TrEMBL record:
<dbReference type="Pfam" id="PF05331">
    <property type="entry name" value="DUF742"/>
</dbReference>
<dbReference type="InterPro" id="IPR036388">
    <property type="entry name" value="WH-like_DNA-bd_sf"/>
</dbReference>
<protein>
    <recommendedName>
        <fullName>DUF742 domain-containing protein</fullName>
    </recommendedName>
</protein>
<dbReference type="InterPro" id="IPR007995">
    <property type="entry name" value="DUF742"/>
</dbReference>
């Protein structure tokens, strides 16, 4: 079974090598923090024919605005692969990243973000 046929959240391992999902690329074209929240754009659902199966799975999961780390965990792919795929989707206009923290964010805001990301990962 490969990741293109694998259901999101399936416990079965993928036989697809991670580099094949990214065409050998190891760095995203957009800098993405692990805690960055990703949301699907409405156009993504109208243009799903442009997407691979794994990209479609990412867009579907992005209905809930998960973090990049949560996407990787839920899809069972390495975080580096998730970052490259999400960056591709950002550039194509299918998803957007919400600003998580600013330089002047308070300790409470930082703690809340960490708690949200951990909570999301625990739900997996």
């Amino acid at each position: 079974m490969d990741i293109d046929n694998q259901r999101v959240g399936s416990a079965e391992p993928s036989l697809v090598r991670p580099y094949s999902l990214t065409a050998g690329r190891t760095r995203p074209t957009v800098e993405l923090a692990l805690e960055a929240l990703v949301a699907a754009q409405a156009v993504a659902f109208e243009r799903q024919f442009e997407l691979t199966n794994i990209e479609t799975s990412i867009v579907e999961l992005c209905r809930e605005s998960p973090s990049v780390a949560e996407l990787a965990a839920r899809l069972g792919i390495p975080i580096g692969v998730a970052r490259v795929l999400v960056a591709d989707l950002i550039e194509a206009g299918h998803v957007r990243v919400s600003a998580t923290l600013k330089d002047d964010s308070s300790d409470d805001e930082r703690r809340e973000l960490i708690e949200r990301v951990l909570s999301g990962l625990r739900r997996i």
